[in-house]
């Protein structure tokens, strides 16, 4: 099975971006962790990042027929993008939402996610570990389909 891991805006800055909130782990570190976990689980993954909403939507469209599932950290688009939600709903691939920080313990505007309603589940607050937790859960879900 294969999983598209899609990271949204500003996540390319991880490591130096608000380390008090997001830690010092870089996106490259997270990719390495995901590759390691995927290898153990027998998954193949693609790891992508974009600062552009439309580009993310096109990556979601292209995932249909190419990947079996999506792991998405849509960054701030989580709280604004009906279009990304609609793209996920359209491709009908099992999708897990991940956030490094606990969005519910932060500003009120981060408490609403447009993604959650079309996701299989959501993991937040565990930093980079959330990505490998999500891969683990997706792997089980894909095996039982
Ligand atoms: C984030 C949480 C979002 O609110 C924020 O805009 C991000 C990162 C997280 O991983 O904790 O860019 O998705």
From TrEMBL:
Keyword Lyase appears in the UniProt entry: yes
Pathway noted in the entry = Metabolic intermediate biosynthesis; chorismate biosynthesis; chorismate from D-erythrose 4-phosphate and phosphoenolpyruvate: step 3/7
In this chain's numbering, which residues are marked as the site (Transition state stabilizer)?
17
InterPro entries, per database record = DHquinase_II (IPR001874), DHquinase_II_CS (IPR018509), DHquinase_II_sf (IPR036441)
Q: Which UniProt keywords apply?
A: Amino-acid biosynthesis, Aromatic amino acid biosynthesis, Lyase
Where exactly are the transmembrane stretches of this chain? Answer: none
What Enzyme Commission number(s) does the record list for this chain? 4.2.1.10
Q: What class of enzyme is it?
A: lyase
Pfam families xref list: DHquinase_II
According to UniProt, the reaction catalysed is: 3-dehydroquinate = 3-dehydroshikimate + H2O
Q: Catalytic positions?
A: 22 (proton acceptor), 99 (proton donor)
Q: Which domain of life is it from?
A: Bacteria
Q: Which residues are recorded as binding substrate?
A: 73, 79, 86, 100-101, 110
Q: Name one GO biological process term.
A: chorismate biosynthetic process
* Family of this protein: Belongs to the type-II 3-dehydroquinase family.
Q: Note the subunit structure.
A: Homododecamer.
Q: What does this protein do?
A: Catalyzes a trans-dehydration via an enolate intermediate.
Which HAMAP family does this one have?
AroQ
Q: Cite the NCBIfam families for this sequence.
A: aroQ, PRK05395.1-1, PRK05395.1-2, PRK05395.1-3, PRK05395.1-4
> What is the name of the protein in this document?
3-dehydroquinate dehydratase
Q: Which organism does this sequence originate in? A: Sulfitobacter aestuariivivens
């Amino acid at each position: 099975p294969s999983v598209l891991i899609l990271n949204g805006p500003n996540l390319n800055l991880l490591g130096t971006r608000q380390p008090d909130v997001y830690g010092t782990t870089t996106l490259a570190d997270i990719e390495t962790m995901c590759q390691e976990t995927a290898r153990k689980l027998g998954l193949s993954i693609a790891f992508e990042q974009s600062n552009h909403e439309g580009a993310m939507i096109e990556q979601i469209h292209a995932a249909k027929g190419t990947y079996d599932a999506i792991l998405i950290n849509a960054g701030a688009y989580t709280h604004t993008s009906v279009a990304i939600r609609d793209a996920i709903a359209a491709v009908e691939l099992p999708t897990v939402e991940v956030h490094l920080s606990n969005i519910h313990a932060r500003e009120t505007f981060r408490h609403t996610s447009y993604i959650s309603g079309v996701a299989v589940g959501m993991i937040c607050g565990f930093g980079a570990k959330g990505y490998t937790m999500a891969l683990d859960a997706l792997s089980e879900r894909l095996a039982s389909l």
